[in-house]
Amino acid sequence: MPIDKSYKLVPGTTVFDAEQSAKGYHLNQFCMSLMTAENRAAFLADERGYLDAWPLREEQRRALLDRDLNAAVREGGNIYFLAKWGAALGLSFQQMAGSMTGMTEQEYRAMMVGGGRPIEGNRIDRAVLEAAHADQAPPAEHAAVTAALFTSHVPAIGAALDHGKTQEPYWQPVFAGYEYAREWVRENPPDVVVLVYNDHATAFDLSLIPTFVLGTGAAYPAADEGYGPRPVPGIEGDPEFAAHLAHSLIRADFDLTLVNEMPVDHGLTVPLSLVFGEVERWPCKVIPLHVNVVQYPVPSGERCFRLGQALGRAIRSYHRPLNVQVWGTGGMSHQLQGPRAGLINREWDNAFLDRLVADPAALAALPHLEYVEQAGSEGIELVMWLIARGALGDLDGSGTVELKHRFYHVPASNTAVGHLILENHPRAEAPAGKE
């Protein structure tokens, strides 16, 4: 069903949702720039010139130059950001609010002194609300989860790719395991990949530790992880689709952090290189989904699995016929610190692969202790595979899953490499009038 956005029907009100945020991103970031005295002085000295330095639409520039706050809000401006612009111009909040209501500052102040604007006459028209709800039909076309792909994301794999070492005896067996994936993706190209990965103290340091991050921006550059950025293309996002996913998942009670700008490290770029190879531009859009598995507490496998199920529903509710793949990355068994550094557990890894295919719900119940003890302290990354697995249709009866490829190899630097491809086949709908 379409996402309920009944809040759009409240008269005289624009709710700042993910769609508005994407629309007004640069407008609001311009407002944030006015939080320093130097920038305020530059703006006041040459408003048009300062605005022209920002990638704003002309409608946004005109709204600001005309002091038209209603137009600025329609163009994606948020009042808390716009307040910084107003402050730079010497406007009080009551002046700003009054200008949006057709009142002078004095008239608006008098209204507030008199008790404020009454709720009478400012509610949703019930007939309008009922008509909007009655008209909510499933979209004629919708996005589909066509496959889930799972892979380790070892940084040394990226270095081997970037330095032409893929055919060296050490690395050749690793890359041979991805030859099938490269052929498969050419025959099954996605429009969008939702790529589940973890940041490795690159975009997020200890000043900010979000549990789940959904990338809602238009582009993401490759990060410099200390050796310089990888020589790979930047990531093209899909802000409209990402806004839909954000709305759906947060309404499903998953508390996501929404990020419009961030560099992406090897956790995201290595899987793309393994599957797509060396390209001038990635052949699909990518929506990053970061999971904190660096500092405890980290989300449980069960939480990740349920997020994946909600993600699958969110994708299928989108009103455009997108071919979407969900990739789960990280792991397999490895430990990078302490006297147990170098730990590999082949038996446990292969049992994990078996259960991920055949019994993911039971696998999701594994406690953190088992991951750390059996797969190493960094093996906890495997909980991210459960997000991709949860998005497939066999779990809610909407489809069936087919195992297309399985690969396991030790070692790739310090890590066991695991790789699966599961295709999602939707069930045929019964003819009208038949069960």
Q: Mind explaining what this structure looks like?
A:
The protein is of the alpha/beta class. Helices cover 40% and strands 15% of the residues. The protein has 20 helices and ten strands. The protein has helices at 18-23, 25-33, 37-45, 47-52, 58-65, 69-74, 79-88, 93-101, 105-113, 126-134, 155-162, 172-176, 179-187, 239-251, 266-276, 301-316, 346-358, 360-363, 368-375, 385-390; strands at residues 144-151, 192-197, 212-215, 219-220, 235-236, 257-259, 285-291, 323-329, 399-412, 415-426. The strands form two sheets. It has an eight-stranded mixed β-sheet, with helices on both faces. Strands 4-5 form a two-stranded antiparallel sheet. Helix 11 crosses helix 15 (266-276). It is globular, with a radius of gyration of 25 Å. The two termini are 21 Å apart. 39% of the residues are buried.
